[in-house]
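User: I'm putting together a teaching handout on how multi-component assemblies are represented. Below are the sequence lines for each component of a complex, exactly as they appear in our records. Could you produce the 3D structure of the whole assembly as structure tokens, so the students can see both representations side by side? Please keep the chain order the same as the input.
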Amino acid sequence: MASRETIRVGAGAGTSDDRMLPALELAERGDIDYLVFECLAERTVSRENLARKHDPNLGYAPSLHARLRMVLPACIEKRIRIVSNMGAANPLGGARAARKEAADLGLGDVPVAVVLGDDVTSIMKHQSGLTLLENGEPLESILPKMISANAYLGADVVREALGTGAPIVLSGRVADPSLFLAPMLHEFGWAADDLPKVAQGTAAGHLLECTASVTGGCFGWPGKKHVPDLARNGYPFAEVKADGSIVIGKTPGSGGRLDVMTCTEQLIYEIHDPTAYITPDCVLDITGISLTEEGADRVRVRGAQARPATHTYKVNVGYADGYIGEGEVSYGGIGAVARAKWAAEIVKERLKLQGFVYDDFRVDLIGMSSLHDRLEVRPEPYEVRLRIAGRTHERKAAHAIGFEVRAMHMHGPGGAGGACEPRVRDVLAVKSVLLPKKLVNAQVVVEGSL
Amino acid sequence: MSVRVYDIAHARAGDKGNTSNISVICYNEQHWDFVARELTPERVMDAFQHIAKGPVKRYPLRNLKAFNFVIENALGGGVTVSLAQDIHGKSLSNVMLAIELPDP
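Assistant: Of course. Below is the structure of the complete assembly, with chains in the same order as your input.
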């Protein structure tokens, strides 16, 4: 491939439930070269692993169909390459689904480069002595309940996949910023240990990985932080030069705002020690970064620094951990709060009478204390919604919560209304370990002919 | 007289496991030293004592007119097991913004 002086890497999704249309607008109007869809939350891979056990063709992100159907015609026509972790627990299955979507759209035989090796479930079984980062206990404490174990792979193997020339690259678990860094490594031939450039690319990836979070989403505040045309906010791209210079921009003509304030909020988002943000590609230091506005909706990123990558991958281990049950019912008018509190006591007593026990149990008065607690100091609202939730290893006990809350219609204090159906959901818990990189076999295979 | 963090800074909360991180970004660079002096980890822990067990660590980001507060044991055991409505703790930035500081 002829090397370009400047490329644009766009963000098409920042979560599995992200909006669809902004990616198409970016592909059509953003003059981008790459479109990255980041679609895996912490527990998504566990959930998709269960889907795959049910049907071996499944296990990739279900939104893959709709997302690709929407953007593939524009991306193939404009030679925009797609990079995504929508392969989830079944990247090969995702690749077959993607190829079928392309064929159904009349786009012919579109090859897909597939990144494999993030699934380390079988390796975990021989590493039971590894320490869980969250509580210091050995991995073996959760091994019997393990559903999935996936290493956060880095940009190196995604770059290898781009090297095949396939228009689409699909992976399972890859660190979010690495998905964006990979096209830069590929296009400009940056060495993995060219730390100033890897740092800049990683910082750009971190700014892009939550799409609208840098273009005015999760930001506005009436009378304080105005965001124009927020219902139509556009998605961002990084304009990258071979020397590592970076400008963040967004779809021309879209709503929202992109400036130093929005970029600063996203830059610090989900970072702990800002001198040591660990990715598979480097240890990023954002404290030297300066952000400057270069015209409307353009922010220059300078001064990212990095130390060499660590010798381990972070591995998320998903495991089944019981059930969460919940129920809600509303009270309004005179004595609404007193009636809601009384109902909560009745529900608790009913659950106790039936002998149910809970690992964790919570009573919220929505409108007063459901977000920030401190019920005792909150003013009483006109109406309040009682919510009760509990975690347990017995499905029946989980269901009973919503059942007893709903029963407040007939058996509780006067004037209860609008109870929801009892809700029960499986708990897919996630803990993590560090696994030596040398034990992981990251590799690329191509589905279809190049 | 006092000011709220809200009056001089903006904030966003993020989650990793059972840890919440909340940025505090000054609108005006001249307030950074004031925030450094007054918005101590102890004061933040005090405001979050009903929600988080702590500890709280504070990291300065002078270039960005900002601080990053990392609050441990803040998310009901973590996103995947929490019974909270707001499992990610996205709304926790508002607890930070409501903290009152002495008038600069």
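A couple of points students might notice: The domain at 2-102 of chain B is CATH 3.30.70 (Alpha-Beta Plaits). Residues 32-38 of chain B form the longest helix (7 residues).
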